Protein 1
Amino acid sequence: MTGEIRRSVCALDCPDTCSLLINVDNGRGSRLRGDPAHPVTRGFLCGKVAQYLEREYSPDRLLYPMKRAGRKGEGRFERIGWDEALDTIVSRLAAVSSEHGPESILPYSYAGTMGLLNGSGMDRRFFHRLGASRLDRTICSSAGGVALNETLGFRYGTEPEQFAHSKLIIAWGANIMGTNVHLWPFITEARRKGARLYVIDPVATRVAKLADRHYAIYPGSDQALALAMAHVILSDGLQDQAYLDAHAAGLDAFRQRAAEYPPERAAALTGIAADDIVALAREYATTRPAAIRLNYGVQRSERGGAAVRAVTALPALTGSWKEAGGGLQLSTSQAFQFNGAGLEMPELQLRSPIGRTARLVNMSELGKALTELNNPPVKAMVVYASNPVGIAPNQNLVLRGMAREDLFTVVLEQFQTDTADWADIVLPVTTFLEHTDLYRAYGHYYVQLARPALPAPGECKSTVEIFRLLAARMGFDEPCFRDTDDDMIRTTLASGHPFLEGVTLERLDREGSVRLNVSPEGQPFLPFATGAFGTPSGRCELPSADYAPPVESRLGEESLVSRFPLEMISSKNDDSMNSTFGHRASVDRQTSVLQMHSSDAAPRGIADGDPVRVFNERGSLLLKAEVNGGVRQGVVRAPAVRWARSAQDRRSVNALTSDRLTDIGGGPVFYSCLVQVEKCGD
Ligand SMILES: Nc1nc2c(c(=O)[nH]1)N[C@H]1C(S)=C(S)[C@@H](COP(=O)(O)OP(=O)(O)OC[C@H]3O[C@@H](n4cnc5c(=O)[nH]c(N)nc54)[C@H](O)[C@@H]3O)O[C@H]1N2
Ligand SMILES: Nc1nc2c(c(=O)[nH]1)N[C@H]1C(S)=C(S)[C@@H](COP(=O)(O)OP(=O)(O)OC[C@H]3O[C@@H](n4cnc5c(=O)[nH]c(N)nc54)[C@H](O)[C@@H]3O)O[C@H]1N2
Ligand code: SF4
Ligand SMILES: [Mo]
């Protein structure tokens, strides 16, 4: 078995969901690259995953089950066998369930893997049958997702391939070079044919530096900009009235709201000059086709939902959905019309001791859930595919919860993360190169399947297999707990939706990646060219919400602004994936800095490279100043998310972020965060 090339799929939480090829010699992977035949991957990978084999074979991989040997949080563990680990978990969960009710058990997971089986398959069945609390998975995209659904009815968007036909591309809160690099070749192709690229972002990201124009907007003010653009478009009569008449609802109320946002008012709210707003609106409305790549940065603020709704109204206003290379992409995920109910089996809750749908706990309020929630309190938490101590807001409150002696914590992990340090039991899991899974995407329209390309090291098991074993030990005798991976994939594909017609396990095994039947072969998918919005009215629902600056912003609550005058953005680090890859020294360096504008650094006596303390009412954090022109005055940026366990003060950026929720969707407001900064050490 030498010199074989196997296929896999990148499971990281990224819109690109790349198709991978890996060279395997005698069971060992030697080279990882993007599949040149895949229409979106196009033969290349991002830097972090091109080196994934470093992570795969890292000496820091967890290989055996362990139990806590020291105090909670101390991070001392001793190796145990699988039998002892599983028996301990089952007996503790059973005891907690009978004493406090099963809802005192909280699963906590997100998108450490985007694989459907390992990320949202057997685990869901297990917790439903147990009657555990349900987790409201809001941590990333729920404000924007709900906003899209309210406006468009479907989370569909412009295909990445169609950006090549655009004449104007607006990257709106979208760090394309860092978080969505496979869109870049299509943008480059469009620019070769004369297209312009504009970026709307408070931070001078790599893509902002490569753009034709960078609009350095104030954080959390996008709704005001979009309303002002709509105002200009409507007062100049540049709208596509026929499209609006046929396919939109709420135009009168939207027009009235937009009329309250003349460019001068929006200029004061956004920091973008009135003339620039007028020019941008006119150019957007008259350049055909024009596409907006909206990403999730915009919706991580207090008004993030309304902002996404206002931006999403623009392509309906101009009729841009009609054109290949027009429209907007925030997500494509809902086109994967899988049989989610068959995969997750929520009806198992009726067979649980509570016999009804369990309560829902918002993952973005984990600190509160662990310290305030009652009836019942959370007594056990099972964490997988997530690192909540690192990534959830208000880290100090989360840590207070994790430290509770009466909380039983299980963590299924590949690495000893900040969260694993607080576990009572740690279970070693496989990586995506080592197990079978089925993948959707949120930045393109290809379904993919991956089989194990490499053997599992040590005693690692897949997350699916671990929940199968736990179910058996719990005595759950429903046949679904004996489903094989292939059974689960077949069930998931069998939704009967036309987008999935002919997409079978056999075909995926043959082809690896299959385009959804969103349009006839060779033709672009134009989701809303002829209306067909998924809203109850069948129309694009134009929003009418008013704007107000976030409480935590330069124009926000005065008592806060006076003490904490800087707006902190902790956006994604280019070379990591949330907290994944935090074990790398290079990533640790990149995520331990605070980017500042010189006019904010100088009055504080801070020079480039100085150690600084960043603080607010929730916490304090030590970082190194980078006075490098990356941010505009009044804004600071700390790339997310460092491993707190590597930091001298054992904290990371979420020690500062707020656990307020967004206006729509109950999401986190990571990027509405006021702080003060001082120089350390004198
Ligand atoms: N390299 C890398 N890639 C990733 C990730 C990663 O951690 N690293 N994470 C993955 C995940 S989980 C996700 S959800 C996606 C997210 O992908 P993106 O949404 O592209 O990433 P973010 O960094 O959250 O935000 C994008 C940009 O929005 C800007 N921004 C912040 N606040 C505002 C605002 O108020 N208005 C405007 N207009 N812009 C604002 C930020 O400065 C940032 O440059 O990326 C995925 N891909
Ligand atoms: N300040 C700030 N905080 C943020 C963000 C930000 O931009 N700024 N971004 C937010 C966003 S958008 C998101 S999506 C969240 C992301 O938060 P998380 O989903 O928690 O993402 P990661 O930090 O990448 O942690 C995922 C973990 O899953 C593990 N894992 C990978 N594959 C598997 C598997 O198959 N099984 C199991 N059991 N584990 C696996 C990895 O080893 C890793 O430790 O963070 C949020 N937090
Ligand atoms: S993280 Fe994104 S760009 Fe990088 S390999 Fe994975 S899917 Fe592709
Ligand atoms: Mo995310």
Protein 2
Amino acid sequence: MLAILLKTWVASVVLFSSTNALPSSYTGLPSLLDATAEELALGLENNHFSSVDLVNAYTKRILEVNDTLHVVTEINPDAWKIASELDEERAAGNSRGPLHGLPVLLKNNIATDDLMNNTDGSYALLGAKVPRDATVVAKLRKAGAIILGKANLSQWTNFRSSNSSNGWSSHGGQVYGAYYPGQDPWGSSSGSSVASSLGLAVATLGTETDGSIILPSHQNNVVGIKPTVGLTSRAQVIPVSEHLDTIGPIARTVKDAAYILQAMAGTDQYDNYTSAIPNNGTLPDYVAACTLDALKGKRIGVPRNYIGARTETTAPILDAFESALQILTDAGATIVDNTNYTAYDQFITSGAEIAIVGTDFKANLASYLSSLTVNPNNLTTLADIRAFTQSFPLDEYPDRDTATWDLVLSLNLTTSSPGYWAAHEEAQFLGGPGGILGALESYNLDAVVTPSYISAGISAIIGAPVISVPLGAYPEDTTVRTNPRGDLNLTAPNVPFGISFSAGLWSEVDLIGFAYAFEQRTKVREMVKPVVKPSTELWDVGRK
Ligand SMILES: *[C@@H]1O[C@H](CO)[C@@H](O)[C@H](O)[C@H]1NC(C)=O
Ligand SMILES: *[C@@H]1O[C@H](CO)[C@@H](O)[C@H](O)[C@H]1NC(C)=O
Ligand SMILES: *[C@@H]1O[C@H](CO)[C@@H](O)[C@H](O)[C@H]1NC(C)=O
Ligand SMILES: *[C@@H]1O[C@H](CO)[C@@H](O)[C@H](O)[C@H]1NC(C)=O
Ligand SMILES: *[C@@H]1O[C@H](CO)[C@@H](O)[C@H](O)[C@H]1NC(C)=O
Ligand SMILES: *[C@@H]1O[C@H](CO)[C@@H](O)[C@H](O)[C@H]1NC(C)=O
Ligand SMILES: *[C@@H]1O[C@H](CO)[C@@H](O)[C@H](O)[C@H]1NC(C)=O
Ligand SMILES: *[C@@H]1O[C@H](CO)[C@@H](O)[C@H](O)[C@H]1NC(C)=O
Ligand SMILES: *[C@@H]1O[C@H](CO)[C@@H](O)[C@H](O)[C@H]1NC(C)=O
Ligand SMILES: CC(=O)N[C@H]1CO[C@H](CO)[C@@H](O)[C@@H]1O
């Protein structure tokens, strides 16, 4: 359906100029399924509605889909009080900036020092307390964002079991995508992606070790930015690996994601990886990077050997991808084909990533647990968490096994193990000279472009950024296929897919521009419609 639509429709597309002027059709009350941060900020500034109205509307929307999609695990009991304070600040003429009074949701591994729990989807951590907000949360609050609640996720960010399902956690239930009955939401930022897609907040935060922002964004018709490791602090976020983990925005538009990234990124005394941010920590202007001509004169590579084979399930995506290459060309870019990754064959069989992540997880998890000011079950090590999980009925062990933890514990690696630095060096080579960095340099590229289903891995092992933007959706005649566990519909008609731009470390400002220039020429998100969606709008909750 869309793969074909995209081809024919691009010729007639009308481009909107990016100004802050209200469109002539603006009634003051944008529909929340697609409302942008700028539209909501304008409505607040013009007193068409308040932040309390926004909190009322978004929480009603969350509860409307609670029983069907299990997207949000907790609503912040303080959200109304915070909204009301921010409304007063605004009325007194003090705006904190573009996010003032806008509600956001957090993935349930990003901690807050308030009444909400941070569980990674496990009862093991229910009731635990942290010494302070995660730094990304503190930065968002300072920018005026309202923390509305916690989004469900794949339990332990999908770093537990070989037989679980994307978006399932014992504490939050099974998240479903909204575009087909029983849709696999992908993960592990499942609830964050579905929530952004359905307009349950202005945007959400996700986390990624390898694919956890990009893949669910791709599968749920939203934009995901996976920042360079170190651009966003991981302090007080339940970790997998300090070498790969990063926190990023998931939003309905590239510009909304840019606004959130601008506010959450930056140096932090509690995460020394942030000291690597260039220019002594001064951030580029990610929002200003959103220009229609951002692709003009740029060289964009296509690493065909990384993209892989055409199969029945990849065919619709690859067709849409070929059309997208034409759109990039029309936008002024030069497409350089076959910018292959020279060490790709070694990459796909390499054990370097699990060696690094497995080493980090044991140490980084223990470090997070030791930071807790209240630890109700006294769990201090991975072995403790595993014992809890295996004996706690709602964790569905042994059906949902603990294979990942079993492996990590049996490897028994530390940073002083003989293979550790070798694995680190190997990863740097496979993603670097043998991977994306090598292709960027050899072909003098500004970025590479790939379907999003494949984009995460090569960038993950070197901590490099990726952005995914909606590209299309499966056509109506698609055969329904389930996930390996057999309890979710993974491929089905109307299930969305995305396209990704990737480049070297700290290249977010370029990638955001490329993604914006593509998004504005295609507006795919608006063409793919969810089959389940909440109906509450601002006009249903009253207005000032
Ligand atoms: C969400 O739905 C469940 C039932 O599936 C219900 O027990 C729970 O109270 C609901 N949550 C809220 C916040 O209403
Ligand atoms: C956090 O968990 C505790 C313990 O189950 C519960 O009493 C509390 O209501 C939860 N907080 C929120 C905001 O749901
Ligand atoms: C998957 O889709 C089929 C229809 O194709 C439907 O019968 C089934 O209930 C769906 N699965 C789930 C988990 O809802
Ligand atoms: C960063 O902090 C970690 C743990 O606090 C420490 O082990 C590491 O040496 C530090 N790295 C740098 C570059 O300061
Ligand atoms: C870098 O930033 C720090 C803190 O913001 C400041 O104290 C320092 O002077 C800056 N260094 C340079 C070289 O600008
Ligand atoms: C790049 O990879 C593709 C797909 O594997 C292959 O067909 C092509 O020949 C390769 N091109 C170069 C220049 O290596
Ligand atoms: C945790 O440890 C504390 C102090 O040793 C003890 O009082 C408490 O009963 C323990 N809680 C659990 C659930 O084991
Ligand atoms: C995986 O889960 C499925 C669905 O519950 C179950 O049928 C199967 O036995 C499980 N496999 C293993 C190896 O536990
Ligand atoms: C793990 O390795 C350490 C030494 O590095 C050793 O003391 C310990 O017994 C090992 N544990 C297991 C379960 O093999
Ligand atoms: C806030 C909320 O709706 N939480 C629900 C999430 O899903 C689980 C499992 O279905 C429910 O028990 C929670 O009440």
Protein 3
Amino acid sequence: MSPLPESATIRAMNEQLISDNIPKLRQRVRRSAEKSEFGNSDILVIAVSKTRPAEDIRVAHAHGLVNFGENYLQEAVQKITALQDLPLIWHFIGPIQSNKTGLIAKHFDWVHTIDREKIARRLNDQRPINLPPLQVCVQINISGESSKSGASMKELPNLAHTILQLPRLQLRGLMAIPAANAGTAQQHEVFSLMREALAQLRPLAPAVDTLSMGMSDDLEAAILEGASAIRVGTAIFGPRNR
Ligand SMILES: *Cc1c(COP(=O)(O)O)cnc(C)c1O
């Protein structure tokens, strides 16, 4: 019997890994949601598929995942095009340069990383009229690091006000990434600040319902503090090279 070509072996191992990981993730999510006092029993799991081939996304979809997050635009557009036969919902979660807004507005359903007025206006102007309004979150630079993208809490009211005037965008909520070296206590602190900021935004617009926070390593803290959407890469697809 001749051995399988290496690529097919790797593919089979990858499929097994993803199939094993998804139920484990669902259990982590369920346990935290049960413990949370903030009542999000229905947590949206966004599978972060950056750097992963389209085949991995097909496997995750076969296990019930529908929402996928991408950071790198060129690679994302290729995968979105290759997977048009599946009913997937695409979330842009990377930093946005203004020359990229056209492709983002054309290919994505959600954008989590609006951090300034110029980007909001361009996405609004470039959203194709045959598509529903783009669902958007404002990214907050919650750890206050100058190198990180995101609006400050101080800038949030004006930015939210601008977005609410733009007919081709629908403001859904807030997104944040805590500092990579944050310990559990610090994670809880920043996530609870986010929950309070969302509570202030809610009365401004009925569609505001989304708190996008929590990744593979901090999703428990995020869900306990009221996350409604988590963005999970490694815990679904395994470690990344970049
Ligand atoms: C890569 C990425 C994630 C997923 O990170 P994991 O640690 O692999 O779960 C989530 N959110 C954003 C914005 C990312 O860039």
Protein 4
Amino acid sequence: MIEPAMIAANSRNFSGGPGALPESVLQQIQQAIAVVPETGLSILGISHRSAWFADVVREAEDNIRTLLGLGSDYHVLFLQGGATQQFAMVPLTLLHNRSAAAEYIHGGYWSGKAIAEASRSGNIKVVWSGANDRFTRLPAAEELQLSPDAPYFHYVSNETVEGLQFRQPMGLDSVPRVCDMSSDFLSRPCEAERFSLIYAHAQKNLGPAGVTVVVVRDSLLQNSPTDLPGFLDYHSHIKAHSNYNTPPVFAIYVVLLVTRWLLHDIGGVAAMAHINQRKAELLYGLLDQSEGFYRGHARPADRSLMNAVFNLATPELEQRFLSEALTAGFHGLAGHRSIGGIRASLYNAVTLAAVEELAQFMTDFRARHA
Ligand SMILES: *Cc1c(COP(=O)(O)O)cnc(C)c1O
């Protein structure tokens, strides 16, 4: 059994990633590591060629389809290599034999990584960059001048490091829309059918590190190259039902449990978004009412519901905040190593009660140090 103290520590995991998982899922995992009842084996030793695992993949895929409302013209894949591998697989697949530039928004740290990787495979154009504003805001649709001839348009829906999130799909409906949703996948409705390809690694909202979900429209892959290494070819994984080589059985099983939790316990992505909204309002409300003690990084209109990034007056006070927070049992609040400061990540599995406890701690900290 998981001790109550262990549950309390986990429920106060505000890490940017790998993030918190739902308590009920952690309990099922614990059981599954001992034995998965239907199989008599530990999840860590079940064959990826078993009928049981084929069912796991099928159900996880169906659940994601249901949660996103996807039609049968989409494939749902469970791949390895993280979001970083998708930074490369997307241009390798879609820039083949194309001279026109793929268009990218540079909204923050992670889209910068995607752009650097894509530049290695082909012609890329950055249509907007927030670098001069220290990535404190995102563009409005009217600020973008987009080409109808671009092979695809890429952006990151939630900039995890800076805490910036788009409110609606960006880009032209006539150009394939490709999106890194690693840090807000299944946290809100996203009009998935307006995207040609969505990728999201699991370790923020979906499960442990080791598996990346790719949702791709079949027609996007019609002209893809035939000479890619098999592992980097989406077709290999489609044909093999995400079982091209030994897949991360454990990680995929946890994704299945999380999608069941979203469907049956939470009631779907709209219900999840409602809870996430309340969590974020609570935390941002506290920043806004702190008379400058807590200073939000993002402009309010672009604030992320998943990652609240803020500063205190000095780096010393931030260190003090982090160390007192840890003593009080709040984990993972240090900002990303590239920008420092504080980041409270409010992923799906972080409960409203945990955010209320953090808010109380922050109110008390301010009273002690203002
Ligand atoms: C964390 C993160 C990544 C990095 O993903 P890896 O799985 O480590 O390759 C990429 N994109 C976004 C938006 C992220 O939050």
